[in-house]
Amino acid sequence: MRKVISFISKEEHYEADAAVLACFDFRFHPALRAYIDFLGKVDLIVAAGGVKQLVAPEHESDREFILDEFLKSKKLHETKKFIPIGHIQCGAYGGVNEEKFYIDELGKSPDIIRKAIPDAKIVKAYIGWDGVYEEEA
Ligand SMILES: [Zn+2]
To answer: Residues lining ligand 1 (ion), CB within 5 A?
Structure first.
C-alpha cells in the first residue's frame, strides 16, 4: 500500500467529550470540523441525514444502528454527552431550505436517545449557513 499522508496518531485511551451524529454533506464539513475542535475529543458518527436517522429513519434498523453507535461510544470511551446535529438544506430531507423545519426535527431526538441511554446528557446542534448553534436538551 502506498503511504499518501504522514501523520502521527496518539495511542493512548481517551474519554470522549461527546459522541456526535452528523450528516455526510461535505458543504458543512468545515463547520463540523470547527465544532469538533470546539468540543474536544469526539466520537464522530456520520450518516446521510444525520439526525434524520434517529427521528425519521427510512428503516427502523437505521435508528437502531445509530443508537448502537452511541452506546458503543459510551461503553468504549465513557461518553456522557450525545450531540445529534441537523443542518440546513439537507438532501436526506429533500433539501428543505427552512431552518425551523430542522430545529423541529432535531427537537424530536432527545427522547429517542434517552430511551436507549437514560442518563445521557444531550445537546442539540444545528449547522446553518453562518455557523453552528447548540442548545442543551
Ligand atoms: Zn444532510
So the answer is: 23, 25, 90
